[in-house]
Amino acid sequence: MSLIKLNIKGISYSQTQTGAYALILSEENGPRKLPIVIGAFEAQSIAIALESDIKPPRPLTHDLFKNFCDQFAIKIKQVIIHKLVDGVFHSSIITEQNNHEEIIESRTSDAIALALRFDAPVFTYKDILNKAGIYLQTAKEEGSEKEVEEKSEISLESLTKSQPKSGPLNLSAKSLAELNTLLKEAVAAEEYEKAARVRDEISKRKD
Fold first, then answer.
1. Where are the alpha helices (DSSP H) in the chain?
2. pLDDT at 15
């Protein structure tokens, strides 16, 4: 199966679940985005890695892992999002020490946080992107991608602030047609976390 490189575009607030965020990955040389629901701690860790000018006074968990690897000459070569099961993405971290490779299973949020610290590329398989990728460009077409990226990014400071609670998103009672409509509405409103949940529910119905 062919691998597709992904770029990290930013983090979006959850519109449906307090304390959750959507990590936005984009297909290199393609229009599709891959939103992945992550927790607040992982979102903060990724935001710190994206903000190169910010250095926490004490190392976070992912910083500690990076320091540990550096001490023992372990490199992270790449991260591969290799599986999608019931809306949950599974990743592998490809490491190298003394020209010897090892594969470590990981949550995708942790793998991305580490990939940023090691400047390692992130990939996924074509079938996963075909199944879970979302086309976020709308009728605005050219110029809209930059606007989408700017709106998707959140500041590190805002990650520490509590967000207003919203009611649960009940998708199980909706028909497939209603879900497809809801997906289009979420994409148009740039509610990426909501779009990801609706997409996952549609995928489960089709399996």
1. 40-50, 61-71, 108-118, 126-132, 144-152, 156-159, 176-188, 192-206
2. 57
Report in angstroms the alpha-carbon separations of 14 from 127, 143, 168: 26, 25, 11
Find how far residue 87's CA is from the centre of its chain.
12
Cβ–Cβ contacts within 10 Å for residue 205, how many? 13
Structural domains in the chain, CATH included, are 3-206 (3.10.690.10)
Pull the structure tokens for residue 69: 């690897």
**Could you tell me the pTM of the whole model?**
0.71
By the 8 A CB rule, do 186 and 193 touch?
Answer: no
Listed as ranges, residues in the chain with pLDDT below 50 are: 138-166
Which pLDDT does position 153 carry in this prediction?
44
Whole-number pLDDT of residue 157: 45
Nearest to 123 by CA among 12, 34, 17: 34
Pull the structure tokens for residue 57.
Answer: 């006074």
